[in-house]
C-alpha cells in the first residue's frame, strides 16, 4: 500500500460486509444486498452529504461483484472517457461504472452512455450530494432501478471505523503502538458528525502530530481538543444539506419546538451564511406566525437588521431572540393561504369585470363612462371600528366568494370576530 495515500482512502471497505452503517440501504437483510451477493448489480443513484460513504459503498459493491470496475468524476471526464467505458463493456460483456458528481453529467456524455445503460452492458452507480429528483437528468434517473439516500453514520458506526483503522496492520495504523483513550476516540467520533472521511483524516492527523514515548505514540487530550475544534461539520454550503437545514428550521419553528429550532439555527450560523438564515426567518414571521401575532414581523425584521449591523458572532444574539419568539408565538397561515387561493382562482379563470363604481374616476369623462356610485366608507362610522358601508367590491360573477378563513389564534381571534361581524352586516 503506497504510503502517500490518506488513511481514509486506504480504509475504504473492500466488500459489502466491511461497510459500516447504512444498514437500511445495504444491510444483510436488504433486497439490494441479496441481489448483489447473487451476482446482479442494478444501476443506481447514491445520494447524500459529503463523507457519508457514497464512494466507499460503490467500491464495496465493486469488490463484492465480479464486474470490471471503472471510476470517473463527471466534472473532469469527457466524451472520450465515456467511449473508453463503452469499449471496455464490448470487450468484457459488462462493466460497472462509478460516476461521482453525476449531477454534472453533460448532454454529450449522456448521449454516449445512455444506450449502453439501457441494454445493460454498462451498470451505472452514480453519486451526488444534490437531490437527484432536482439535479440529476431525468433520462439518467429513469434508467436507475435504485435511488438510495445515505444517512450520516452514527457515533457507534464512527467508533467501529476508528477501531478498525487502529487495528488494521495492512491498510491502517495497526503496525504502530498508539496510546489513545476511549474518551479521545469519542471526541473524534462526535466532532466528525457522521462523516467517515473527516473521522479517519482527523485520527491520522492526531497520530501524526503526537509525540512518541518509549516506542509508542501517546495522544494528549490537549492535542485532540485543538484539532477537533478545527473540524468543519456543517455540511455543504448551498448544497442540498444546506437547504435541508433551512427546511428543518422552518418546520421546527412552525411546530413550536424551541430546542430543535435553535439547533438548526446554530448549524446555519456555523455555515456562515447570515443572509440566507435572515431571509428564511423573515419569511417564517409572515408565513407561519402571520396574523396571530402581527407584531412579530417587525420584531424579526429589527432583529435581522441588528444582526446585519453587528455581524457574526454577535449577530447570533438578536437572531436567537427572534427564533425563540417565533417558536413560542401563536401561529397562523391564513393570510397567505387566502392570497394563494385567490391566485389559484385567477389561474383557473375565475375572474370578472371590476364593478363600475370601483373604477378610476379621477379624470374628466369618467362619469360619462359610468364610473359612478362609489360610497366613501369613512363617511359612515360604525362604532369604534371606523367607517363601513355595504357595497359590492368583488366582480359580480364572484359575489359571495370567500378566500380568507380566519383562525381563532392570538391576535387573529380579535380580527376574526371583526371579519365575521362585517360578514353578518352584509347578509342584513
Automatic annotation (TrEMBL):
Residues 40-152 form the AAA+ ATPase domain. CDD domains: AAA, HLD_clamp_RarA. Keywords: ATP-binding, Nucleotide-binding. Transmembrane segments: none annotated. It comes from the Bacteria. Belongs to the AAA ATPase family. RarA/MGS1/WRNIP1 subfamily. This is Replication-associated recombination protein A. It comes from Chryseomicrobium palamuruense.
